[in-house]
């Protein structure tokens, strides 16, 4: 099976296995697609007959890839976005990265037309190749905690579908969102006031690690949604466990790139660096588990009161899935940080160009306190 990161091309490639998306969906043959329950979107016969073979896809050889990620190579110390940018500049809008150390090939495409074909033909149970270390840790390293449930991040096929069917009525319910909005708004207001208090008088600069502050806001918001609990990260007396979790999550995202994206021998040889990564996983799991167990204990003492937080509602359906899902929420709460940071800076850029529309500029200046 080949991983497919949806990318683009001005040429058509007759790949024996159709696209996976950014999180790597299952690659199927043309015949496989016709056999699934979802309707098959027939391709234009001329387009298909003129398609190039899979082996003609451009991309680095395995030896070149290893060479370039080592010290001195152009991919060394590059993050995921830089890595993709460099590959695209070298090989174009569609390219293949050959699998190393037991991994499957990955094909990247930037063409939205390819995305549509994949999503319309992937079948009822998509297969997404995600974080291998995540699945290994939950199912091999800590089975006593997760009991064989990998969660929505790493489960596939019908098992993934069964979990989705259980959590969707709660996670996607409009009523649940509306119930949480007032407190989420309070958290957002506390965040903006915190930033205002850090401004340097006269030049509107903020004296703080902005990324760290957004991490606190993100985790504070998600922890309330998941546990109906405030962590105090935006105040003067934050929860120390929450700070520790934020620190370990930052390490997690750094190390995940090293062991889940870049070539790594960890499936065959667990290096000291990989063992440190497992220790980070342990820290995250233990902290999240302590929060969940604390909330479960509180629920038992409260009796049959109406469920408010996500954890309370999930516990009424499936205790083990509730545990895994809430832990995923707490971990993913900080994963939104890069997007939030880009959103902030894009808004600052908007302020610079919005002189074309003075009313909008005045509103944005007021929102960011820059008037």
The order of strands across the largest sheet is 1-5-4
Q: Quote the beta fraction.
A: under 5%
What is the CATH homology-level superfamily of the largest domain?
Cytochrome P450
CATH class of the largest domain: Mainly Alpha
Order of helices and strands: EEHHEHHEEHHHHHHHHHHHH
Helical proportion, percent range: 55-70%
Instruction: Report the total helices.
Output: 16
Judging from the principal axes of the Cα atoms, what is the shape? Answer: globular
Named CATH architecture of the largest domain: Orthogonal Bundle
- What structural category characterises the helix and strand content? mainly alpha
In terms of per-residue confidence, which ranges show pLDDT below 50 for 5 or more consecutive residues?
1-40, 338-344
The overall number of domains is: 2
Query: What's the mean pLDDT score?
Result: 75
Distance between the termini: 56 Å
Instruction: Give a count of the beta strands, DSSP E runs of length 2 or more.
Output: 5
At CATH level 3, the topology of the largest domain is Cytochrome p450
Radius of gyration: 23 Å
How would you characterize the largest beta sheet? 3 strands, mixed
GO molecular function, one term: iron ion binding
Family: Belongs to the cytochrome P450 family.
Protein name: Cytochrome P450
InterPro entries: CYP11_CYP27_families (IPR050479), Cyt_P450 (IPR001128), Cyt_P450_sf (IPR036396)
Furnish the topology, listing elements before pairings.
Blueprint: E1 3-5, E2 13-14, H1 30-35, H2 45-49, E3 52-53, H3 62-69, H4 80-91, E4 94-97, E5 106-109, H5 112-121, H6 132-141, H7 143-146, H8 157-171, H9 174-197, H10 210-227, H11 240-261, H12 272-302, H13 310-315, H14 319-332, H15 337-353, H16 358-367
Parallel strand pairs: 1-5, 2-3
Antiparallel strand pairs: 4-5
Helix pairs in contact: 9-10, 10-14, 10-15, 11-12, 12-14
């Amino acid at each position: 099976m080949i991983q497919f990161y949806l990318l683009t091309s001005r040429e058509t490639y007759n790949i024996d296995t159709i696209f996976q998306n950014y999180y790597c969906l299952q690659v199927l043959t043309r015949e496989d697609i016709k056999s699934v329950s979802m309707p098959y979107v027939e391709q234009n016969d001329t387009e298909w007959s003129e398609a190039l073979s899979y082996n003609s896809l451009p991309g680095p050889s395995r030896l070149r890839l290893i060479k370039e990620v080592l010290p001195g190579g152009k991919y060394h110390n590059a993050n995921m976005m830089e890595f993709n940018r460099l590959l695209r500049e070298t090989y174009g809008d569609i390219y293949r990265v050959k699998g190393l150390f037991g991994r499957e090939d990955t094909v990247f495409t930037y063409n939205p037309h390819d995305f549509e074909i994949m999503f319309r033909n992937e079948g009822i149970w998509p297969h997404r190749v995600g974080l291998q270390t995540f699945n290994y840790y939950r199912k091999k390293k800590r089975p006593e905690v997760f009991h064989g449930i990998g969660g929505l991040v790493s489960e596939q096929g019908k098992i993934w579908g069964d979990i989705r069917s259980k959590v969707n009525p709660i996670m996607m319910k409009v009523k649940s969102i509306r119930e949480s909005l007032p407190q989420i708004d309070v958290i957002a207001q506390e965040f903006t006031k915190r930033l205002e208090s850090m401004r340097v008088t006269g030049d509107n600069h903020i004296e703080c690690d902005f990324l760290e502050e957004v991490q606190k806001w993100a985790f504070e918001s998600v922890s309330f949604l998941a546990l109906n609990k405030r962590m105090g990260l935006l105040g003067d007396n934050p929860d120390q466990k929450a700070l520790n979790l934020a620190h370990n999550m930052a390490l997690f995202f750094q190390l995940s790139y090293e062991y889940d994206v870049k070539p790594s021998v960890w499936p065959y040889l667990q290096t000291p660096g990989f063992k440190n990564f497992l220790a980070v996983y342990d820290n995250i799991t233990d902290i999240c588990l302590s929060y969940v167990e604390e909330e479960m204990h509180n629920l038992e003492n409260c009796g049959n009161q109406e469920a408010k937080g996500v954890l309370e509602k999930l516990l009424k359906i499936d205790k083990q899935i509730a545990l895994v899902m809430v832990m995923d929420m707490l971990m993913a709460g900080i994963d939104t940080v890069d997007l939030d940071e880009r959103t902030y800076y894009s808004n600052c850029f908007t302020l610079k160009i919005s002189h074309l529309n003075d009313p909008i500029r005045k509103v944005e200046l007021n929102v960011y306190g820059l008037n």
